[in-house]
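pasting for the record
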Amino acid sequence: MTLYTPPSPHIHSGQRISGMMLRVMAALIPAIICYTWFFGWGLIINTFIAVLTAVASEALMLKLRQRPLRPFLGDGSAVLTGMLLAFCIPPLAPWWITVLGVAFALIVGKHLYGGLGYNPFNPAMVGYVMLLISFPLEMTSWMPPYILEQLEIGFIDTLKMIFLNHFPYGLTIDALSSATPLDAMKTDLGLNKTVSEIMESNALFGDFAGTGWEWVGNWLLLGGVYLIYKRIISWHIPLAIIGTLFVIGSFFFLMDPDTYPSPLFHIFGGATILAAFFIATDPVSASTTPKGRIVYGIGIGIIIYVIRAWGGYPDAVAFAVLLMNMAAPTIDYYTQPRVYGHARGKD
């Protein structure tokens, strides 16, 4: 008799995959509201585009692979991928950026490997890295909150900017957008400015990270705690990522505070918290053993800091997650828990 074991994710709490995905989406909602408050309607519009593209791409690939539509479309995995990728795309990015990124994530990052449970890489990060490498200008044009406060840019104006490339008041995307706090910090440090000088002279920065970004991070953190409380994810990966960044960031900050920002800047200034709770914890592409999850999270934290401090990309979350996705099978192989009843030191 052959025992068939389906691929991961394996859920032991009695929940269905669709229930798990819905809880993750619900945990994102407070951060989406906060994001919209600080950065305008772009995220809502991008999320709508991303979800439609994700469902259409999923349906297309299921049809081509001769798989039933209803059970796979109903599990919510495609919708969650679209929401996560929309969260990472600049709010004023052209509509085709979102469509290309989400379609690539679902078709190449997920279905060409066999669909849910078979993909070795996180699909949302596959789509994001493709966009970042292929369209660096569009992917680095962010509208800071202080500009949004000065200009009355409503929902219709945002729609025109995203779909028609029509900007109000005769402005251009260059006039409305700026770098992210991580990018601005990295650029100004290269001009021999100190960390304190950079943060005090630029309205982009808040108390310890970027204005708006730090508040979005707070709500993502609360959403992540909710997921741990509901046992949708375990605490190992988030704690390992955030703890590693805090330890390394504290070490270099104490050694040279003029050159290295505080650890809180690294935790709340980019996509660290989003990755720690919502992306790196993907049950398919992440490590699955308790010890392996800690090693996996530590690896992501180290890679994020190394690339941010000495690499070419200000926010290295996507690269760190994909690199550790490749290492996850080996990590699991060497961190398997001891089999019950197996005596130590004996075969």
